[in-house]
Amino acid sequence: MVNLNKVMIIGNVGTDPEMRFTPNGNPVTTFRIATSRVFTGADGERKQETEWFTVVSWNKLAESCNQFLTKGRRAYVEGRLRTRAWEGQDGQKRSRVEIVAERVLFLDRQAVAPLNEEAKMEARSDEELVADDLPF
User: Cβ(63)–Cβ(27) under 8 Å?
Assistant: First the structure.
């Protein structure tokens, strides 16, 4: 029998990525991402439900996530689910389900510096020239 452990989400990054290194020197980056769904409840009122996920990325993907993701950006995350369990400092057993990322796509464009007035005028005049040169 074949097994499958795959998850795909699109959401908003809720925390700035945090990169650290294993004792072997491998980079690992973690961040939180939120997905929301809007639905109509039994009472006819629109409601929103948000789920939070912890994402763990390794090696080159970890470096890219640390470099390009920031809080508020949109991202697509594809990976597998992993459950970690540990004992907290207070002696309580804790567990967390994480997404171990295999692929992360940065969906928002990087912020671009606004054009100054002179650059806007040049862009506008270039558009006019191109439009006039079209044969149809």
Answer: yes
